[in-house]
Amino acid sequence: MRPTLRSLLQRHLQLLVMVLALLLIAVVFSITTDGSYLSARNVSNLLRQTAITGILAIGMVFVIVSAEIDLSVGSMMGLLGGIAAILDVWFGWPLPFTIVLTLAAGLLLGLWNGWWVAYRKVPSFIVTLAGMLAFRGILIGITEGSTVAPTSNTMGLIGQSYLPDAASVAVLAVAALVILGWRRYQRGLRQQLQLPTPAISREMMQVGAVLLLVLAGVLLLNSYRGVPTPVLLLIVLMLAGGFVARKTLFGRHVYAIGGNLDASRLSGIDVARTKLTVFALNGVLVGVAALILCSRLGAGSPSAGNFAELDAIAACVIGGTSLAGGVGSIYRAVLGALIMSSLDNGMSMMDVPTFWQYIVKGAILLLAVWMDSATRRRA
Q1: Claim: this prediction has a pTM higher than 0.85
Q2: Are 301 and 277 in contact (CB under 8 A)?
Q3: Residues 129, 132, 138, 140: is their CA dihedral positive or negative?
């Protein structure tokens, strides 16, 4: 049975609202900044800002979907960025070793949080609140409250480099082939299982629309310096996270645990190990975000990452991730991160006072959580 227009709108209502909100933000800030907001240079800067929040949001989706929370990611990112800066500036380590050790430290910190939550049964709110304070304290202690700078030129490649124009187009072409091949494989599999299969013309229109939108973005960015490397990292991690969440046994276990903990235990899912893995994965992703932040700043700062956890949580909730667990989308969380970064960027360009920026972001977070609660009550 072919879905009607009304059913499609109901299914994708939240996504439509997010896209309209993003367009409204773009129009308002473009008018108030005399078009500077949509300039190639500012769009490039906006997307680099989004990369950090988006990567944090990817890890946070897994945590929230499993019916937990992580309030320590901002302090953890600051600490890991400080470690990366120390290895680069004080010890002069080669970039590959700095990356590996920073990600390993993120893994250990994630395992630390996960062990307390999964095996010691301490509420994640308390564990990560303690981590938020402890990680910030460790960062201030090892840096003695001073900024570790300047980082090397090689460290700058992570957060400040750009793909050449030809490479951007080549990556887009490869991505198009991969997407088309994957959709063809899925279509063949659904036909073998005798499941409803959308019309091929509709699928081609959807894929074509996405590719045209991406191509327009690539051409716009190429008119400045090219596609920023952090944006490419975000896209790769978003696709990988979406695949893990929806197409793997681990991902299905995470959603099952968040949806019904008792049923998950009775069905044989190792709840403790899955939650430990979720926090470990989150720690690694925080490590990636920390490397990008350290590279962008060219330093490790004791104040780096302040309130980043709130941006990540807000991005997830705006993207439809339920704080009750069991519901969430990687792709929509990244779109939520783009909305949060768009507001930050636009308000900064308008020189809105910092206190007003905090008030606006707090109001948005409150509104998003209220909408999540209202939706669950209606369900």
Answers
A1: yes
A2: no
A3: negative
